[in-house]
Every structure is written in C-alpha cells, then in structure tokens.
Amino acid sequence: MSVSARVFGAFQEHYQAVSYPAIIALLSNYGREQDVGVKQSYREAAQKRSDFDMSDDKGKSKLWGGRFTEATDAFVERFTASVAFDRRLYHHDIEGSIAHASMLNKVGILSSEELEQIIQGLKEIKSEIENDKFQWSISLEDVHMNIEAALTSRIGDVGKKLHTGRSRNDQVATDIRLYVRDEIDQIAKLIIQLQTALLNLAEAEAETIMPGFTHLQTAQPISFGHHMMAWFEMLSRDYARLLDCRKRVNLSPLGAAALAGTTYPIDREYTAELLGFEKPTSNSLDSVSDRDFAIEIASFASILMTHLSRFSEELVLWTSAQFNFIDLPDRFCTGSSIMPQKKNPDVPELIRGKTGRVNGHLVSLLTLMKSQPLAYNKDNQEDKEPLFDLLDTVKDCVFAYSEMMPAVSCKKEVMYDAAKRGYATATDLADYLVNKGLAFRDAHEVVGKSVAFAIEKEKDLSELSLQDLQSFSELIEEDVFSVLTLEGSVNARDHLGGTAPNQVRSAVKAARTELGNR
Ligand code: ARG
C-alpha cells in the first residue's frame, strides 16, 4: 500500500469514529488552545531570555508603588527593567549619591550623623557589589532603585531621605556623564600608547621604501615610516575630538531633578565641584533630556573605528602572500580548522568588522533622540547598551592595535622590489624633463611612451639603456639614472609633509613633542 493510501485510510477511520460537528469543535478549540499556548510559552521564554539571573528575586516592593493598585505584569517588569545592564553604573551612582547627600548636609537638609550613615551604608553596598554579594532585583527596575532600596534596608529610615531634591532623571544623567568621562580618560591613554607605537615604527622604518598607492595601483615610492605617520595623524584628530567631547560631557546635571528643578535650597555648584565637573548645566529641562554627549562620543568612536578599519584593511593586504610586505607574529593570528597552511590575520579582520557595530550604535543613538519631546522619556534608557558596547569595543580595538603594532616587522626587500616593479619613478622622470626645460604635459607624454616601451621590454625604467631613453627625448642625459632610483625619488620629496626619510624623522620628532605636551 502506498503512503498516500495509508494516510487516506487512517483519515477515513478517524473521520468515521468522530462526528462531524465534533471535528469542527475540535479544530476551532485547537486553534484557540494553540494561541494561549504560544503566548504562555513566549512569556516563559521571554522571562528566561534575560541574561540576568532572577532566581532569587523575591519581588521587592516598588519605591514608586504608592499610587498603584495592582502589581506590575511580570513580563512588563522584565521588559522595562534596566538593571541587567545599567548595574555597571553602580560605582558612579554611589559617587553621585555621596555628593548629593553631602550637599543636602551642607544646606541643612541632612544632619551630619545622617550623612555619615548614608555614606557608610553606600560604601558597604559598593563593597558588596564588588565582592559579588549584592542581591540585584529585577523588580527594583534599575541600578538606582536597587542601591537606594538596599541602603534603606541597611540603615533604616535615614536611607529614605537620600532622594530628597533629586530624581532618577538627573541621577541617571549624572551617572552616565561620570561613566563616560572615565571611559574618555582611559581611551585617551590607549590612543597615546598606540600613537607611541606608531612613532617608534615610523622612526625605525624611515628609510624603508615601499610602493605608495593610489587606486591601489603602484603610484610613487614612499617611506614605510611616512605611511605610519599618516596613521598617526588620523589618531591625532581622533584624540582631539575625544578631548573636545569631554568638555561637553564634563558638566553636572545634578539638581535638575525630574525636569523643572526642585523646591529645596540646593547648591548645584557644590555637587558639581565634588564630582569634578567643570560646572553645572544651565537648563533643567535640557539637563535631564540631553544625550548629545552620548551621540558625540559615538561619532568620535565611529570615526576612530573607521580609521582602524582602514589600518586593518592594509594589514590584511600586506600580510597576504600576494603583497607579503610585513609579518604579523603568530600570537595575533589564528589558523584554519581545515587548511593546515593558513595563518589568518584575525585581529585586524575582526577590528575591521567591529567598525560596523560601532557605526550601528551611532545610528541607534541618533535615532533614539530623534523627535523626542522634552524632557526625560523612557526612550533614554535605551542609550546605555549601545553606549557601553561602543566604549568597550573602542577600548579593546585600540588596545589590540597598541599591542600589535610594535610586533609588526617589515619585509624590506619585498616592499622595495614591489616599488621597483610598478614604474613608481615615472613621475620623477617627468619632473627631470621639466627641470631640463620641457613643459610638464609634454614631459608626461614622453614618459608615458617610455613606460609603454619598458612594459613591452619587461624592464623597469632604470633598466633601459640611455640610448633607448634618449629615443623618447634628447633632453635625457646620463644623470637621469640617479633620478630613476627609488632612493632618489623618495629623498627628492624633501619638504614639510613629504616622504623623504629626513622629513619623516622630523615629523616623528615634532609628534613626540606634541605627545609629551598632552
Ligand atoms: N533606568 C532609567 C534610565 O536609564 C532611569 C531613569 C528613570 N526615570 C523615570 N522617570 N522612569 O533612563
């Protein structure tokens, strides 16, 4: 019996056993049960999806629970909570709270004993968190309320006074600014390390000749050191952008409260000073809603990553068998599980790839802020994951580069030969003819014909005989050969910003002074 006959037989049997209306009922119920089942299993899966362990979460009561008559839906609780990712702000949250409490004491809202207790409690909480003993709770939503609730359960009613004259809106804005400022300072140091590595390489390889490219076609010979200094310049602009962004990060929104300020006699200058901010922000509405600084650091990061992706692309090309210009030590590479001969430049490749994710975060942040009405909106909670991830990524990538660059070794002969093979001195021949009185356009034409001839003879320009060269222009004399060498070509570009090893060395010197002044 065929399969279809068997299935048909079974169906017939079943059909006879069950009445027609019963089948209809079964089918329609089946749909509905299915629906409820899907929803239920989605809920369960969604609850488990959090990378945050909630197994011990006792469902702490809400700090804002006063006006509510039913408990938050369990799904909504997880969906709206940020503690799984914003708890990394704990250090800055506590720092901000200590400054706020100190200010409340200064203006007479908290007694000195109360301040003592609050500071002591917060310090204990900090060490609990750092020793992995702190019980985070999803039902307490975010890092701010987790810490505040823990403070109150630790020191009692005094803990409830901490939030006087403050809102989570100015609190979170303060925390992120403090966090980003610390990250900026770390990134600045990493950039300096990488730039120092590039300077060392540029100095060591100032005389090393490689082909310079335009359109990825051999153009003119350049110094490898000069190429490294081009990378250095890109990073100097990144550094300047980073520090410029820091100026706008380093302002204190604390005191803006929910959106309109507060009725207490707060001292915003004092908290700003305690937290090392340059000064308080000016407008309370803007203070709680502004995330320009996050977008700015993201654009800094995107441009920096774009630079690293360009370096990476070149390293990947240069380590390929076809270029073979440099060697990257094994510790920065990995092998293939199938092809035993492979040594892949994974680190530069991955950095090139991570550029995409950082660019994505920039777009996320821009889109997050687009069309947001004043003042704070819950949308802003979405700033953290892209922000944290892009800062982590930038630090990792700059660090990787600062480790990798000192380990790069140049295959000088290969680079030299490659420069020689590409008629890289053709422009030098044209310039030679101009010096002998020919107009540049005519010289261009003469050299073009000489190159075509050399290609046909499978020779470099420097390998043609004087007679052959003279057949293209009578102006060519014996001294032409010094111009046609790669060294002659490179040394001749001896002006500010040129590729002559001389210039590379003085660029390195100037850069060292600049780094020393940072
Ligand atoms: N978790 C919130 C955030 O990251 C803190 C501020 C919440 N403010 C509020 N009004 N719900 O933005």
Blueprint (SSEs and pairs):
Elements: H1 3-17, H2 20-49, H3 74-80, H4 83-86, H5 90-106, H6 112-130, H7 143-155, H8 168-204, E1 209-214, E2 217-223, H9 224-249, E3 251-252, H10 268-274, E4 279-280, H11 284-289, H12 292-319, E5 326-327, H13 346-369, H14 384-404, E6 409-410, H15 412-421, H16 426-435, H17 440-457, H18 466-470, H19 480-484, H20 486-492, H21 501-516
What is shown here, in short?
This protein has helices spanning 3-17, 20-49, 74-80, 83-86, 90-106, 112-130, 143-155, 168-204, 224-249, 268-274, 284-289, 292-319, 346-369, 384-404, 412-421, 426-435, 440-457, 466-470, 480-484, 486-492, 501-516, and strands spanning 209-214, 217-223, 251-252, 279-280, 326-327, 409-410. By secondary structure, the protein is mostly helical.
Description:
There is one protein chain. This protein is mainly α and 518 residues long. The protein has 4 domains: 3-80, no CATH class; 83-164, Fumarase/aspartase (N-terminal domain) (Fumarase C, Chain B, domain 1), CATH 1.10.275.10; 169-416, Fumarase/aspartase (Central domain) (Fumarase C, Chain A, domain 2, Up-down Bundle), CATH 1.20.200; 426-484, Orthogonal Bundle (Ribonucleotide Reductase Protein R1, domain 1), CATH 1.10.40.30. Helix content is 63%, strand content 4%. It is built from 21 helices and 6 strands. It has helices spanning 3-17, 20-49, 74-80, 83-86, 90-106, 112-130, 143-155, 168-204, 224-249, 268-274, 284-289, 292-319, 346-369, 384-404, 412-421, 426-435, 440-457, 466-470, 480-484, 486-492, 501-516; strands spanning 209-214, 217-223, 251-252, 279-280, 326-327, 409-410. The chain has a two-stranded antiparallel ribbon with strand order 1-2. A two-stranded parallel ribbon has the order 3-4. Helix 6 (112-130) packs across helix 7 and helix 16 crosses helix 17 (440-457). The longest helix has 37 residues, at 168-204. The relative contact order is 0.09. The mean pLDDT is 93. Arginine binds at residues 82, 86, 142, 168-169, 172, 376, 378, 380-381.
